[in-house]
Design the sequence.
């Protein structure tokens, strides 16, 4: 094999680095001359390496996928721009060095898809569509966390909702499938309707009235009040009423049974019971042209005592409970008494005592104790 001789003058005329490199005893001494081991070296031109370039920080292998190798898992690798650290990553994380200043993609260069197990955002999340029923979402804030209006063609399903503003709808419907039309709330014109089932509304309301097409009742017997002391209904109008307890009219109130008109009418007449401060009174009253009417006390459908403006008429005999009861008093006597038959222990008359039947009885009736007229002399029959 041919050899190239290096003539001594050539060595003498070469640079110091060249002489040292040529006279190096081995490769290690040569690398020391070139200062490429354990020291920084600046490459001023492009270089192609057919082998590997290895260090503790990176590893690029020829003809293979490039690699950056950080031998220690706890340490990070920095990416620098303009001699400033911009991004940092390690075996577990990739993050910008400064918070809130770097973007992932751009408005004119977007990623096609982003796949993530979890995400945390301290700012705004903007999207044109949200796919899925949201059943796995937790800890959503109140109000509208997506800051988005639902279109009129949307049919979203919610597990729960918290709204700080208005919810506008024509119908709020139950998810029940037990009926043709499930229970619902509808808003038609100026009215709201509550539907129990099918097409029959149970309650209808507007700003002045609440109308019912079903019974209203307490859930448990004798458990719920209708009004309360201090919050009373002004008037209750009813066809019938049934009370198993007390029907009370408090002081200052009255009970009225109308025969003509009703409360507040100009012309009326009625039976009223009340406490007037001194007596409990029951009597007929009237307003306007209604006219006072007579009052009758019945028993078993038969008249017993009639009270009119001119008389008190008795339809059965009167009797005391015992012989200690008087009719009238010494200072309060009946002006005139008309009797067909009187049973009494004693009698005291301050005026004329007229016995028309006695005067007409001119023969002894043969009834012990009965009076009879014997030619102008009043006698008592011995029987």
Sequence:
């Amino acid at each position: 094999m041919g050899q190239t001789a290096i003539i001594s003058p050539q060595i003498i005329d070469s640079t110091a680095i060249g002489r040292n490199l040529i006279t190096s005893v081995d490769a290690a001494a040569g690398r020391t001359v070139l200062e490429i081991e354990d020291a920084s070296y600046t490459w001023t031109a492009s270089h192609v390496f057919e082998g590997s370039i290895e260090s503790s920080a990176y590893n690029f292998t020829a003809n293979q996928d490039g690699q950056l190798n950080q031998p220690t898992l706890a340490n990070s690798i920095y990416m620098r721009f303009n001699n400033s650290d911009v991004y940092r990553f390690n075996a577990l994380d990739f993050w910008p060095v400064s918070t809130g200043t770097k973007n992932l993609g751009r408005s004119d260069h977007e990623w096609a898809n982003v796949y993530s197990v979890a995400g945390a955002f301290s700012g705004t999340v903007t999207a044109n569509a949200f796919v899925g029923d949201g059943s796995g979402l937790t800890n959503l804030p109140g109000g509208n966390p997506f800051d988005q209006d639902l279109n009129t063609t949307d049919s979203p399903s919610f597990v729960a909702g918290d709204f700080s503003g208005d919810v506008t709808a024509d119908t709020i419907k139950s998810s029940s499938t037990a009926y043709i039309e499930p229970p619902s709330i509808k808003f038609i014109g100026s009215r709201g309707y509550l539907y129990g089932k099918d097409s029959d509304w149970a309650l209808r309301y507007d700003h002045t009235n609440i109308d019912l097409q079903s019974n209203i009742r307490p859930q448990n017997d004798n458990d719920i009040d209708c009004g309360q002391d201090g919050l009373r209904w002004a008037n209750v109008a009813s066809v019938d009423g049934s009370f198993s307890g007390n029907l009370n009219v408090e002081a200052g109130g009255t009970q009225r049974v109308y025969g003509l008109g009703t409360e507040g009418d100009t012309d009326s007449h009625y039976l009223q019971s009340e406490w007037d401060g001194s007596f409990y009174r029951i009597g007929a009253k009237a307003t306007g042209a209604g006219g006072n009417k007579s009052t009758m006390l019945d028993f078993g459908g038969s008249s017993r005592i009639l009270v009119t403006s001119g008389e008190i008429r008795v339809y059965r005999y009167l009797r005391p409970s015992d012989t200690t009861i008087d009719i009238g008093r010494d200072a309060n006597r009946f002006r005139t008494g008309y009797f067909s038959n009187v049973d009494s222990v004693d009698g005291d008359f301050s005026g004329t005592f007229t016995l028309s039947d006695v005067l007409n009885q001119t023969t002894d009736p043969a009834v012990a104790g009965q009076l009879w007229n014997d030619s102008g002399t009043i006698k008592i029959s011995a029987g």
Observations:
- The mean pLDDT is 80.
- The radius of gyration is 59 Å.
- The chain is about 5% helix and 25% strand.
- The helical segments are 8-13, 16-22, 27-34, 356-360.
